[in-house]
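[Automated response] Your request has been received and processed.

Submitted sequence:
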Amino acid sequence: MSGFPWGEFAQNLALAAGAALAVMLVAFAVAVRKGLHRIVDVAWGTGFTAVALVTFLASAGEGDEARRVLVTVLTSVWGLRLAVHIARRGRGHGEDPRYEALLSKAPGNRNLYALRMVYLLQGALVWLVSLPVQAAQYVPGPLTGLAWAGTALWAVGLFFEAVGDAQLARFKADPANRGHVMDRGLWGWTRHPNYFGDFCVWWGLFLIACDSPQSAAVALVSPLVMSYLLINGSGKAMLERHMAGRPGFAEYAARTSGFFPLPPKPRR
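Generated structure:
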């Protein structure tokens, strides 16, 4: 397949960067006013939605209409669900310990340090990770089986994320579970159903962009970066370091897959 509109796509990259930056700056202003930088986690999903919508408008007259609508809807559904979930989860809570620890190292003004180390960094990641969403909207050919396979993988990912989050929320809401490790439902098949779901979502969106070799080459960095972050970066690895000393976690980890879902091993 040929005819990928490189000039128009280059202009879109700048517009997408502006959209991601705008969302993060608004989040920063709200966070400073409230004195609560965990708000940036809500902006993460919102930023992807903004990039998808801006790219959809910018790509009018380019690419395949069905693919443009599909990738915009899938990204927006994923991003808004995540933003709403994180906003509800954080309601009534103080600062996230991760940001408190980071800002305690600030050499000067904490807010300006947060702007550089949290908001601008996450805005850059939103722009980078969203490359499949941006590139897919400029692919000129019609949807193929590869794109529908990507949509199916996205759906699997959204299922694991949404169901896993709901199961964990119900578990934490029961006072009888205080101090216990969640090991039920999807959490009995993988220690991180929400991170595995995120993994599937971004590999799925990448496949939708793969009907053009040019867009596939541009987009490949996104699922690779997300996979690293989810498994070795700020996802699984960081959370398990935090959970390592919790009673029952070692036994749970011994019988439950670390990432990809597998039948749980029998309890000892």
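Summary generated for your ticket: The mean pLDDT is 95. The chain has one domain: 6-255.
If you did not submit this request, please reply to this message.
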